[in-house]
Structures
1.
Amino acid sequence: MHIPDGFLDLKTVSATNVFSIGFLFYSIKKITKKLNPERIPLLGLSCAFIFTLEVISFPLPGGTTVHLSGAFFISLILGPFSGFFITFISLFVQALILGHGGILTIGANSLNIAFTGCVMGYYFYKFFEELFPSFKTMWIFIISFLTLITGSLLLLIELTISGKILFSKSLFPVLFAHTIAGIIEGIFTVSAISFLQRVKPEILKTQKI
Amino acid sequence: MENKIKIEIKNLNFSYDEEKYVLKNINLKIYENETVCIIGENGSGKTTLLLCIAGLLKYEGEVKIDGEIFNENLRKKMGFLFENPDDALFMPRVFDDIAFGPKNFGFEEERIKEIVKESLEKVGLPGFEERVPHHLSFGEKKRIALASIISYSPEILLLDEPTLALSPVSKENFLKLIKSIRATKIIATHDLEVAVETGDRVVLLNKGTIKKVWNKSEVKSIKYLKNFLLKEPGER
Amino acid sequence: MKHHFIDDFAYKKGFLQRVDTGLKVILLILLLLCVLVIPEKVLFYIPFIILTFLFLIFSKIPFIYFLKRILIIFPFLLVLFSLSIFKENGLRIFLFSFLKSLISISFVFLFVMTTKMTALSEFIKKLPAGFLISDIFSFLYRYFFLLQDEFEKMKRAMISKGKNPKLKDYALLSGNLFIRSYERSERVLKAMISRGWKIK
Ligand SMILES: Nc1ncnc2c1ncn2[C@@H]1O[C@H](COP(=O)(O)OP(=O)(O)O)[C@@H](O)[C@H]1O
Ligand SMILES: [Mg+2]
């Protein structure tokens, strides 16, 4: 869920932007230091891909639709900093040209979606994968799910601090909706990664930054 | 006219996966300002051969251009027209796509605007500078892609399936355009009409090896070439 | 497939179209910040609404078209609405946030509709670390319509084979789309190198 402008107050906007834009520059520093420039077209096309994925809505039984996030998926392929970087840009351009989310709320939205999906997701996955390497698929599913839940909790906190909602009353409906979205995201990430593994495994071996 | 050797390929071998060779023992001399057409079934290695000549893949063997083994300075001498113009037009605006080569090859800033204008006129699309590639028709994209190469006046043109997916009229115009450019040309095509019409020589590639080379006088008709293709079982 | 372009109106001759991109970016951010901090009194909002209309008229953007584009935020607002009513005074809080949202998105769309994406990309290039951002932004702008078309084509091909795509099929289509994007990036890289792109 992308927060539009107008629903966060000044302190929340400032804090989230300082964090996210700071992290954006940190990512760029990491990327430009280590990245083989040959990968710039790949980052560009991946950014177009993640944008497309977030724009496509797919129907659920019952008439509603869901958007996939894909942030965790892309970080599994490209690495946490590249993932965060292109997801941030994709979110920003969505706000700019489609009105999904806001400009001043880009800090909050990229924290909720890109940071949780790419950075938190990636390192959690690395940690658990090394600990219990035989349950890769399960970890991908669980962490995919958890990134969405974490994102939704952050969203609730941001809106509560801004004085727009009551945390206790909103917790249940928001968690419920994101549990469904999280399961969908989990199934999506697992199937898409195993598809790549089957069809073009060398993609999963690209340099991760 | 046709005596200076422009490109010399010696014992060229190439494989993508270090197992199956896609190009096997290719030897070919191409003379200055000559047009050589490479024909062959899908998957016979035409595109791969062009990529090797352009120095875009690492191969075994030797490709010399004007007597020099491949080095970065040779890039400026070669223009590669990719099969799909969407791959070659990667900038958000036509102007930047055409200016991309000249900028990288160190042309003077002030000249670039003029060069772009001239290149667009040459391909028959004057005034397209500000257009967005996604808005263009396929034929227009193809022409812009050509303009983005001729903008730095390469001496060698490597054209991969230049007429693929063009309507008959567009195809005719595009071929005329290609013929009007003075350069050494290598055209990879599975369209025999293109080979008969443009080739000073025609090379038949089959499963990565050169099966036959015809001079212009020997290439009698499309039917003649087709018979050869039918005899050589391609990959299916 | 026909896509309507976000910056279509940037090519018309109007007031905002003539303003320098950098200046517009600063103006936009200032306006958004103003909207963010104005207190919850209707009176304060009126000048911003008038400003929006003035910009619309002098930049030759048709009102109905503009309205249609803005309506995109409503589904999200519905969610926030249903959450905020639990709060004391929630309706009032929501309505003011809603107003802020509406004015903000109007400014954003006014900016986007009157700015050529290529000019924006040039502007980004001048920012700190803007080089990489502007490159990625350019690729995104150049290729996302293409990817959307590719996805739609694959989906239709699947449907025409009598298969109604389910979640797993969407995952396969997406995986496929990623492979295509990956392979395209390899070809684009070759095209860039062949035209003298130096790997620094
Ligand atoms: N990027 C690639 N990776 C692996 N194999 C490839 C790649 N590109 C082409 N090939 C293989 O190399 C062979 C020759 O392909 P190509 O040169 O494209 O043929 P043509 O242009 O004549 O149709 C084919 O068998 C094809 O499958
Ligand atoms: Mg080919």
2.
Amino acid sequence: MSHHIVEVTGLEFTYPDGTPALAGVSFRITHGESVAVVGANGAGKSTLLLHLNGVLVPQKGAVRIGEIPLTRQTLPEIRKTVGMVFQDPDDQLFMPTVYEDVAFGPLNLALPPDEVERRVRTALERVGAWDLRNRPPHRLSGGEKRAVAIATVLAMGPDILVMDEPTSNLDPRARRRLMDLLASFEHTKIIATHDLDMALELCHRTIVVHDGRITRDGPTAEMFTDDELLERSGLERPLGLRACPVCGSLPMAGLDAAEGG
Amino acid sequence: MAGAERAFLDLGRLDRLAYADTPVHRLDPRAKIVATLVYLVAVVSHGKYEVSGLLPYAVFPAVLIAQADLPLGYLVRKLLVVAPFAMLVGAANPWLDRVPLLSVGPITVTGGWVSYASILVRFVLTIGAALVLVATTGFYGVCLGLRRLGTPRVMAVQLLLLYRYLFVLADEALCLVRARGLRSFGRRGTGVRVYGSLVGHLLLRTLDRARRIHTAMLCRGFTGEFHSLRTLRFRGADWAFLLGWSALFVVLRLVNVPRLVGALFV
Ligand SMILES: Nc1ncnc2c1ncn2[C@@H]1O[C@H](COP(=O)(O)OP(=O)(O)O)[C@@H](O)[C@H]1O
Ligand SMILES: [Mg+2]
């Protein structure tokens, strides 16, 4: 379906305090693609993502979701299509219980009560958090919070998922579980991350951002073996693509996975 | 700093108390809100030297605490956290108002002391009732009820956000207090300057967080309208609660019960 397409052209953005964050960004992401946006701290990843569902409005350039250009008038429509998972789940979870938090979005869509309940249940079961439904969100573990934050977005029924550093601050087990969960989604996915190993596993395409510009856009596996590019962008080769520090052999598993995906 | 941590930490418990299922919890939020408003007006409208006439009002929070099975110790601790404000508000009265009002043996009590006592009693009663309202209704329920009672949308939303930000503020304060505790190695003498920058930091961080939370609400379709999972229904029990208590408050406002009881026995 065409409305899964995300098209950004010539996007520029400077924060009110004068900090330039984006200096002409263009790309087109098509239906069902899974794309990593990587770059060092302050590269402009979060600023870019915030434009995709209209939290920030382009100062120059344009954002289109499918046929719809992003403007103040189309915001409600765009926000139903593009689900945003914020970097810090504590910013996203604000109701007294997990259940109500997930119900918040569907209730705002003015859906009938039984449809709200169906959506909440489906979303919580999808992320394996149905058992947490009566708990207060701020008492959950980091991994559980992240799962619930994703459920709050799924309950809105978006076609496109935008996620800002979803694996940051997770322990290895929680990170693994989250990656498996993300891999199971059929949505178009756009994931900002430092976690190049995750990018390699989940995203066949990567956009490298540096100082508010796109320095590279292409298949993930190619990009992460380009040490010079990584160096220029303030990044490091993912562990999965480094020579084994013990025996010196080059692991190929990661590459295969990335190319196969 | 452990004291400050504990005082703040339990704010969320007030909301969680609202998830119990007792007859008081099941009442329509609007019945509880209006009854509490009548209560507040009655308590506040007494004369400034009134003390004995205020005491019977304690029956309202007391009965609700018992019926709703609320933890008394917790509510008292919340009261103590805000108590310093009340103590400050009336602190000048004993100096300003030195008119002797009554004498008990050799001790003469001035009007200032009596009005100070009156302020403290009112404070305990009104904040106590407000805490009980939130603990049996939940803050979201209170805002929802206010909205359905015809409060303008902006005001109900502001109130809800204010309350959320209180949590955020407490959270951020906790983080900063911990960071400071870690770096001052248990020494107390960290100085006024440090406190100043601590507070400045706190405000900035809270504003930032508050903005991010508001953004997240907007992203999930929040337009400022309140929605509830269950529909509000005003039933017989709600009318009985509202009219019964309101009638009692009117009586207490008009009749000084302790004096009346005292007069009977003199
Ligand atoms: N609210 C803000 N006000 C001013 N400058 C900001 C704000 N948010 C981010 N910036 C600046 O914009 C640039 C890009 O930031 P950001 O998009 O958060 O990068 P990333 O997510 O890649 O770490 C940085 O220089 C950052 O300091
Ligand atoms: Mg960021």
